[in-house]
TrEMBL record:
Macro domain ranges (all copies): 6-179
Protein name as it appears in the record: Macro domain-containing protein
InterPro entries named in the record: Macro_dom, Macro_dom-like
Organism of origin: Flexivirga endophytica
Signal peptide: none
Any Pfam family: Macro
């Protein structure tokens, strides 16, 4: 169902997570069930926002459809996510928009941790086996890349059994710099 919310909860869904760190352009990833879009908490009207970085690149590839679905989801808690269609991308790919920033538009270890847990829980619940996510919080969120990667790896390390899932952690290779 497009625009389905996934709010963070204390329980964890166990999964056998295999992490692959790669360099590339997240918006160009294919052969994945979902692309993760680090987003804000959706509390400002969409027309006031100018997506940058990953969100901007994804919006250019997907068209406006997924972003309209996201806007209808309303305000998200930190770490909350919304699964939408992927617009002009493959019909088999979804977008998982996750609220990785706090109210002052900053990322912390706690916001990245909550985001990663919710994304994995949503991916497992939707029987996804391969997702691609950027370094959450390393753009406008203010975290350096090493801190973001450390937080992501730490959060993913909590999952050791169950539904197998491959997580491609994508560090951009300057593909977004010209956008």
């Amino acid at each position: 169902m497009p625009g389905q919310r996934c709010d963070p909860t204390p329980e964890q869904v166990p999964a056998a997570v295999r992490v692959h760190k790669i360099s590339g352009d997240l918006a160009q990833m294919d052969n994945v069930d979902a692309l993760v879009n680090p987003w804000n908490r959706n509390y400002m009207p969409r027309w006031l926002l100018f997506p940058g970085g990953v969100s901007r690149a994804l919006k250019r590839r997907t068209g406006p459809g997924p972003w309209k679905q996201l806007a209808r989801a309303g305000v998200l808690p930190v770490g909350g996510c919304v699964i939408t269609d992927a617009g002009h991308l493959s019909e088999h790919t979804k977008l998982i928009h996750v609220a990785g920033l706090n109210l002052v538009w900053r990322a912390t270890e706690a916001t990245v941790d909550a985001s990663v847990h919710t994304v994995i829980r949503a991916a497992v619940a939707h029987q996804m086996h391969r997702i691609a996510m950027p370094l959450i919080g390393s753009g406008s969120g203010g975290l350096d890349r090493a801190s973001s990667l450390h937080c992501i790896q730490k959060a993913l390390g909590n999952y050791t059994h169950g539904h197998p899932i491959d997580v491609l952690v994508v560090e951009h290779d300057d593909a977004f710099d010209h956008l």
